[in-house]
Input
Amino acid sequence: MKNVTKLTLALAISATLAACGGGSEDDDRYESDYDRDDVVTDNSSNTDNSNSGDSTVDTDTSGYVSALITDNLSRDYAKVWVTLHEIEIVTASGSSALIYQSVGGSPVNLSELVDVSQLLGQQTVPAGTYTQFEVRLGNDINMVDSNGNIVNATFGSGVEQFEIIVNGNLEVTANAASTLTLDFDLAQFVYDATTNRVTPTVLQFNDDSREQQAELQGQVTAVYSDRIEIQSPNHANTLTVNIGTGTVVYDESDRSSRNNTSAVVVGDYVEIYGDYDAATASIAAANVRIDSDNDGGEYRQDNDSYYEVEGRVVSYDGSSLVLDVREANFFPGANTVTVSGVANASFQTGIASDVSVGQWLEINGQWDGQTFTANYVEIEGGLTTEERESNEYNDGYLEVEGVITSVDTTAQQFVIAVSDSDDGGFAYGASVTVNYSGAWLNSYAQGCLLEGSYVEAKGALANNVVAAKRVEFEGACGSFSDYSYVDDSADERSEVNNDNDNDNDNDNDNDNGVADNDDGYSNDDFDEAYGNEDHEAEGLIIALSDTQLTLRVSKVEGFAPGTTTIVVDITNAWYEDGSKATLALNRFIDVEGVWNGTVLVARKVEFD
Output
């Protein structure tokens, strides 16, 4: 009989993990506004289920609940690995339904869930009002800071699983779709080095505008020219998978790739990845992989030989590479993983000679606890075999980034002023046309095709035009007209709110002469709530000197500048993924430091 420790959370813990600053970077994790007002909080510290009103369950009717998990921005650890076993929802009267279960547990890097929600599955449950959500994790937690230092800690003592009880509210209506998104709020995780224990914080998150992603396996039940339908063990209903021009369909049996459904037949077992729409039970697919054995065996959770890993290339010698791991279906136990056999692997997109430092790779193979041996590799933005053999492209793979200067939605292309490109392929400031007709763009990203957006395009060069396969946007689409303020402490913000409500003060200036922000909070209020540390800003450099720069911000964290441009003091900053010489106008950067009310004094500058 397994031991389970229960913890009922007071859903706002002010202390945070103390370590180096961290961040998140991924292939299609677009920035979006994060508002802590969207978090359902509960300050109770017990498991009292008493509740007014009728919360009983109608057992004659059922609704559909999609379970998703997400993460708030963490400033402390670059990676936080946990094992997710079960999620159970409970009514006030005690009726319950299991909406997620993983045999043996599913490893999750919580730090990769910034600004996205990852689908766990959809299940049929009795209609009613659910007020408590029980999350069961493996007892071990693995944390890696931005310097690669590893902390192996636990949630409890002498237990195999650790249970977190989250109070909230989920209305399930008969024959309708609902979503439950649980936010693993890493900024409020508390680590006690003396006991080597972590006290976690999990909240119910109510913001359906956040990008919802799905990575599921299942068997094909129907095939059409523009879509397939599958049955997945993690999804109660038939799931529609939409295939677009940017979708890569890879057939393991003959190692071929295409952008249509011609290779898919009813009965195939497939793995799919893309954007999830809970209301229509559909996925806009980025990738579809057809199982070569056609029995689904490699996708079963009890298959010890099926391993996947995703991340950025740190180094590559032509045969083996070191990967900065961002996602995996196993506990990597370290900041990086060595991948052997790359030269002999099958490439789903791109070829071995395209591999270079900084690229995002998805790799399938074997893991022996120390070394990962590659079976197949996908280079994000690389060409499929058919595309490479078409002789249409004069450069098989490249990356270019910069600010969009014009957009032609009819021709499906835009022009950027280049701020960076791989191997110096384009001069700084050059105007480059990017065709995105074959690129995967989710519904959110379509709205990012605007002048002023900061974008990275990955694909091939054809007749001096980049034929993009992947298009990524930075900083809330790069739309700097209204930056996103990230509030990491719901309780502290509530206290500031109460103070402001009691002040009856119409003065719009704080004590040091800096105007209050639009929300009515002064910088003094925020300094008191958050402290003068761990302040962070992302944005575009619009002015630059030897000791400071001006940043047009797209996101700030931990302080409220009250304006869309800020001055950054870089006198004593250290740099990541670049150097001071790399600073230039129209470069997108992330700055961590201390906001003094007028200037952000930089501790670290990180390049995109």
